[in-house]
Amino acid sequence: MVHAWNAYRTHAFGYDEIRPVSGKGERNWFGVGTTLVDSLDTLWLMDLKEEFYEARDWVRDSLSHEVDELVSTFETTIRSMGGLLSAYYWSKDEVFKEKAEDIGRRLIRAFDSPSGIPYCQVNLKTGEAVNEKWSPRETQVAAAGTLQLEFRELSRVTNNSFYSDKPDRALDVLYSMNPKNGLYYTAIKNTNKSPSFGIVSSRLTFGGRADSFYEYMLKLWLQGGKTQPKYRDAYDKAIEGMHTVLLKYSSPSNLAYLAKIKYNNGGRLIHEFEHLECFMGGLLALGAHTDPLGVDSERAKRDMKTAKDLTYTCYQMYSTTETGLGPEIAYKFNKRSDKKGEHDILHKEKDFEPKGDAAHYLLRPEDYRRSHL
After folding, report:
1. How many CB atoms lie within 10 A of CB 20?
2. Do 84 and 106 form a contact (C-beta atoms < 8 A)?
3. Beta partners for 273?
4. Is 328 a catalytic residue?
């Protein structure tokens, strides 16, 4: 962390990102210091206080959210507002709360859609809110259901329910759709009063455009002190659906993976597993250890086993490549029966391959996150 931070500080301090080869700073997240803000809680937790307070001074003196461009509602909420709220939680420095409330006031306007389900993008200066150009009538379920932790925390620290009312209602609207097996198609039509599932690149998956929606079900229940069972119920229903519909095991090595189903394709499975889905090992373990039925219940033991199985697959996605880096998507899984035997070492016959157009590595944190649970 010290090495990485010093490089960022030297070459790109205050920029959104540092380019790994040239070392130059880049404002590709609209100049809101994304790397700096997203690193604040890590600096604090690693006791890098000198670096933390230098970054705090930049936030106080230079950070502006007066951005006359459309930004991602989802990404800006979890990275910018989430980073500021985390820094305030640890340090209690009022600068971070003030900046978090400033950006929260701007982002909340994304929820002013006919259905109450937020638009994908919002102009931080003007308040204009729209969906992506390639899908103007639809948002993604992760983009709509992965905002509530941050807005509820902002509401708590400011003692103002204004920031949580609309996000909570949006989630209630999503839950009212009540899909079979608790699994949501990724595309949600949000421009009519009553939402419905969309069709543009829509699929049942725990990967991109859906992943964190299921994560927040469990974490909202935990954030609320386990007093709001609707969130835990939604999580448990979705995980039951995952086991019934999407969880598969490969041949010859019996590797667990989560398949996908495209919208309107007759329920046919796509046997791919995304690097993004490696977070499921950690999520399932957290769910098992907090299960209201008890950690020794059959459900919790099932979920813990699946957590370990998926984590082992993610390990194999790294260990079987020449570079030791996992691909963005693994595919061509050799399908086998759903019998869940013990793991065996990989045979000469491959269980999967890196997908040609998604064989790259994006430094994603999901595999690291699951390893700590």
Report:
1. 8
2. no
3. 330
4. yes
Q: pTM of the entire structure?
A: 0.93
Are the C-beta atoms of 217 and 148 separated by less than 8 Å? no
The two tokens of residue 188 are 């949600």
Q: What is the pLDDT of residues 175-220, one digit of tens each?
A: 999 998 999 999 999 999 999 999 878 999 999 999 999 999 999 9
Rounded distance between C-alpha atoms, residue 24 and residue 258, angstroms: 38
Q: Across 118-177, where does the E strand assignment appear?
A: 121-123, 129-130, 138-140
pLDDT tens track for 230-256: 999 999 999 999 999 999 999 889 999
Name the helix (H) or strand (E) containing 87.
Answer: helix 82-91
Q: Roughly what angle, to the nearest 10 degrees, separates helices 211-223 and 229-241?
A: 150
In our burial notation (b when 16+ CB lie closer than 10 A, e otherwise), range 228-241 reads: eeebbebbbbbbbb
Name the DSSP class of 104: H
Instruction: Tell me which of 41, 328, 351, 367 is the catalytic residue.
Output: 328
Annotated catalytic residue 211: yes
Residue type, 90: W
Please indicate whether residue 75 is annotated as part of the active site.
yes
Tokens linked to 88: 């305030």
Catalytic one of 41, 101, 153, 211 = 211
Identify the CA nearest to 340 among candidates 282, 256, 241, 259: 256
Instruction: Give the contacts of 66 (CB within 8 A, at least 6 positions apart).
Output: 124, 125
Burial class from Cβ neighbours inside 10 Å (0-12, 13-18, 19+) for residue 13 reads: middle
Catalytic residue among 75, 102, 128, 168: 75
> Quick one: tokens of 45?
């937790």
